[in-house]
């Protein structure tokens, strides 16, 4: 039984165990001095108060042992308790420093829930984090990257850095991927397009192997690897090269359109491009739905039916109950 209690005690962190020992010594010496000198220490609380003041080296002098036995108890307390109390405060300081270093170096364990995980540190991920935090400052975000030497984020922010590869189960567990609500894998700009896509697909396999239900967004650079990313389990694929090429093509046809597209896609400008479900518009023609949406301060651009998205369909097209409407809305 005693061995079981001892093993149970050893499971606690070092600082907690040391705190228990210090509290036990203070209570024990406080109780002993009360029974040895009840006149100088009328209550056990007075004895404990004296033990705390003595071990902390404050020494108020409001309670002082007057007998030889009492002074011997005081000497034993000074030799044993004072060292333990000093060790306790030193342990707290050491633990705090280690925790700060772990956060900076990317070795800290994440305990958040419903957080976002972003894989890869580059200009895109930096812009994503900064822009998203402006709109949702309370959202916790974890960055996984193997190239950074230390965290690029200021202390006190709810953005944590984990140093390592998203293909490693150890790193994914460290990022608490099982409690995350979303993961975004960005392409590595320092690798070739093929190599970057291979790393992204391997990351998807590792992530989905641990948490099949997590929503995974992956950036793929080459057309031929899109199907492999889908097979690996990606819920949504961003073909960044195609998006950039499309913007460039539109800019060549209509000069200055790139700024308008950027403002439309940048959530910080107060508008949001999103899908909504509105069963009340089922059975309406697209033309009728556009007018109804305008009255609700929404701009209807098209709809998603199954896996296909229709932009600016024919005005006589009839909306179905399962259609997801693509609209531009002003953020609340």
Automatic annotation (TrEMBL):
Give the record's keywords alphabetically. Membrane, Transmembrane, Transmembrane helix
Cellular localisation: Cell membrane
Q: Name one GO cellular component term.
A: plasma membrane
Where does it primarily localize? membrane
Q: Indicate yes or no for the key word Disulfide bond.
A: no
Q: Name one GO biological process term.
A: potassium ion transport
Q: Which residues cross the membrane?
A: 12-36, 72-91
Q: Which SUPFAM superfamilies match?
A: NAD(P)-binding Rossmann-fold domains, Voltage-gated potassium channels
Question: Which segments constitute the RCK N-terminal domain?
Answer: 113-238
Give the record's membrane topology. Answer: Multi-pass membrane protein
Record protein name field: RCK N-terminal domain-containing protein
Species lineage: Bacteria, Bacillati, Bacillota, Bacilli, Bacillales
